[in-house]
Each structure stands twice: as C-alpha cells, then as structure tokens.
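Section 4.2 – Deliverable D4.2 (structural model, holo form)

The reporting period included a commitment to supply a predicted holo structure for the target in complex with P1T. Inputs used:
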Amino acid sequence: MATTFAQQGVGKHQGFEYSRTGNPTRNALEECLAALEDAKHCLAFSSGLGAETTLMLLLNPGDHVVYMEDVYGGTFRLFDKVLKRFGLTFSAVDAADVDAVEKSITPKTRMVWLESPTNPLLRVVDIDAVSEVAHSHGAMVCVDNTFATPYLQQPLHLGADVVVHSSTKYIGGHSDVVGGAIMTSSDELEKQLRFHQNAVGAVPSPFDCWLLLRGVKTLALRVERQSMNAMEVASALQGNTAVKRVFYPGLENHPNRSVAARQMRMFGGMVSFELADEATAFRTLERLRIFALAESLGAVESLAEHPARMTHASIPAQERQRSGVGDGLIRLSIGVEDVADLIADLESALS
Ligand code: P1T
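Output (structure tokens):
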C-alpha cells in the first residue's frame, strides 16, 4: 500500500520511488495481464476510461480517428465531448464492413478504434482484415477487448497494435473494483504510454491491483460458464414470442458468426434483445428477480440494463437509432448462476 519508498541516496533507489510512477503490486498485475494477452507490455489504470484517455493522449491535434460506430457510450462521450475540443477528429463507421473502414481513412488517420463484440449490439469485427487495411494506410489499430476477455480473444495475435480493457468487468469479475489496462508488444508505444501513465496520473491503487489479481485467477472458469449460459439464454429468448430480435454472436443467424467462431474461443457472456418498445422494456426490467437492474457487466452475478437510458444515454438519440440501439433494447450480462433459473426469470418477466 506504500505511496513512497525510502531511497539509499539521492537518485539511488531499489526500483521504486513513488507509487504514481510505479508500485510492486501494480507491477505484478501488469505482468499478469500482459501474459494473458500474450503482450510484451501492460499498463494498469484506475478505470477503463482512464486507460482510454491516456492512450488517446498519444495523438496530436489534427489527427483523425476511425472508430466502430457501436461502442460503449462512455467511449463515445470521451471522443465526442472531450477529445474533439482538443482538435482530434473522429469518423464513426460500421467496422464489420472492411470496405467502409478503408473508405473513411484519410491521410490524417492515425488510429482505427475497434470494439468486438460491440457494446451493446454484439456486432463482430474481423480484426485481422481491418488491421491489414489500417496498416496499409499507416494507422495503428486499437481493440477494446473488454467484452471478449483475453481468454476468448487475443487481438494482438489478430494484427492489432494495442488492446484496451475495462478490467472493472470480466478481469475483476466480482463487481468490486474499477480498473483499466492497456497492452501492447511495441516497445516504442510502451515508452510513450509509460511516460503518459505517470504524467497524467490515472493509476490504480495497490489494493485495487491486488483485488484484480485475485479476481483474474478464475477468469477462465467464469467466462466458460458465462459463455455456456449465454448461449442457452440467447436460444431461449429467440424462441420467445415477445422478443423481436436477439443479438448474440453464437446464434446461427448472427451476420458475423463465422468471423466470431474464427477469432474467439467461445462467444462470450453478453446477450442483447429487442422488445416492442420502451415501456415493455422498462416493465420487463422491473419484473426480473435474479437479474439485477444495473449498469456494468462481466461479474459472477447476472445483470440487466436499458442501454438507451443507461449505459448509452450520452449518445444523441439520432445516432443511437442509426447504429441500431433502439428504445426496446435490453442488454444482459450473464453470470454463473444455474441457467435454468436465469431462463425462468426472463420468461416469467416477459410473460
Ligand atoms: O467503466 P470503466 O472501467 O471506466 O470502463 C469503460 C468501458 C470501456 N469499454 C467498454 C467496452 C465498456 O463496456 C466500459 C464500461 N462499460 C459499462 C460500465 C457498461 O455498463 O457498459
């Protein structure tokens, strides 16, 4: 928990000076998370958005970013409401369409920002194909791998340059710590990021690092169970007449199922579905008894939420509708409970 470390003489220390710059528990977490993504380096942050902000500060005014149109609402807010003020420009594209990515790249494009599967519509991007296009135009590729987890998908093996996580989610796994991480195998990027991690200061506490190290030990067990549960929940929802549409990359009718099967070990623990309208969605959410109505995801307990009014409320209604996040949409984070109980809870609320 130490914030500072006694030095033997001025400039003579044993590897640690001050805990914003470096801390042994944070080092242990960074080594562990780097190994999970098979990355050479990892840098830990105090939240997913702290990681994202630090990463974006590598860019300069005038630089252009192409990003997947369906991203976490807070990522959109960071780009649209904060970073635009500092002279960065952004284009939202459907990155599941590789040609659309290529068309939106300009001579000023420095970064292509992906999420796969996306939050909340579980769209899947061919990371390999997009990386090839981005690199041919000199842009780096960053993948927010929060939904997939390093257990299901390793973007650095698919051509990405940088991986970002909200470790608040599956990495922590127990809804008790907020954190973020960046992984890369580039020494040059690591050098710049390490400078900015210290200069900007969005660092995690040693206790939070310890909690993450404890939580991540069961990542594989949790994610396997969550993925198996999610597959069954998605199939059950598909058979329910109150449900207009189910979004899950493991379903046969998902448009990018084959890409997901190629780049992911299983299809993950997130499922979204669409009901007739907002009032029906609200009523259903209020009637769930095992699923807690709450933001966030990736923990052992199942959660349900309304993206349009909760996690994605910062996206203007028109943009939300355009990318397909409707008022009848419900997002589920499937936990490790008995799947029959989860399905019964959903069916009872829907009926
Ligand atoms: O909440 P924080 O640790 O700062 O992470 C932000 C973040 C980044 N990327 C993705 C894909 C995310 O889903 C999030 C946070 N998301 C939620 C809180 C949510 O309920 O969707």
